[in-house]
Design a protein that fits this description.
By secondary structure, the protein is mostly helical. Helix content is 85%, strand content 0%. Helix 1 packs across helix 2 and helix 6 crosses helix 11. The radius of gyration is 20 Å and the shape is globular. 32% of the residues are buried.
Length: 243
């Protein structure tokens, strides 16, 4: 009986490893392929954050793979969000001169932008009758994924759901952000980069970098500082939301 149990346990372990390797390889391969495709056809609808999830959804649906099986095989990719968050210290260090020169402007922009983002999300959700954890998951939608998932967990949202809202917000911001900025009186790289970083985080920063390297640098810096600010105020937001 003990030998049979051991054999079954070994078989289960081997199956788990196979699932992990399979879905990890599929996810990474699709992302790499979509990046190459985006370089040749740079459109918002060909961005890796658009193409990769759609292809993964199609594959999992056609293969009748449950989400729990997929996430069980790719959970280590989610764990990499931790090191990615630490790596955000690099753009802060590289752009320290911008912080020193424009810290007041950046601080006001980050506080106002974060407030408007959360209040508008809360207001629209309330108007549409969305409540509970779903509404809380919407609040950090304009922050980069590692920070947004942390904030969502702190205030009672669903981090995985928040990640979806973050991606949708980034895609929308990249798709219409450039056109919107042409209609607004924002001409400096600081103002335009800040708008992209505040409104569309990583995707917006990538789009800003395509337009102008300086705009991209500012957008990446603002994205990181906004994420840090929101993580720091998350406990206060949780208390306020429970009142």
């Amino acid at each position: 009986m003990t030998l049979l149990t051991q054999i079954l346990e070994n078989h289960a372990t081997l199956a788990t490893i196979e699932v992990t390797v399979l879905w990890s390889v599929v996810t990474v391969a699709l992302y790499i392929a979509s990046k190459h495709f985006y370089r040749r056809y740079p459109r918002w609808w060909t961005a890796p954050l658009v193409v990769t999830p759609i292809l993964l959804i199609i594959i999992t649906v056609l293969s009748h793979t449950d989400y729990t099986i997929y996430i069980g095989g790719t959970h280590w990719l989610v764990a990499l969000l931790g090191p990615a968050t630490v790596a955000f210290a690099v753009p802060i260090y590289k752009q320290r001169e911008i912080i020193h020169r424009y810290w007041r402007t950046l601080a006001i922009g980050i506080v106002c932008g974060s407030t408007i983002s959360m209040v508008s999300a809360w207001g629209l959700a309330s108007m549409l009758g969305v409540a509970g954890s779903l509404r809380l998951s919407l609040l950090p939608r304009s922050i980069s994924t590692p920070f947004a998932m942390t904030v969502s967990g702190e205030i009672g949202g669903v981090p995985e759901l928040t990640a979806v809202f973050v991606i949708l917000t980034g895609i929308w911001g990249a798709a219409f952000g450039e056109a919107a900025l042409y209609l607004l009186p924002f001409k400096s790289s600081l103002a335009r980069g800040t708008s992209f970083g505040l409104g569309a985080h990583v995707v917006g920063s990538s789009k800003a970098r395509e337009i102008d390297p300086e705009e991209g640098a500012v957008a990446a810096l603002v994205m990181v500082l906004t994420g840090i600010f929101n993580v720091l105020i998350a406990p206060l937001a949780e208390v306020a939301l429970r009142q």
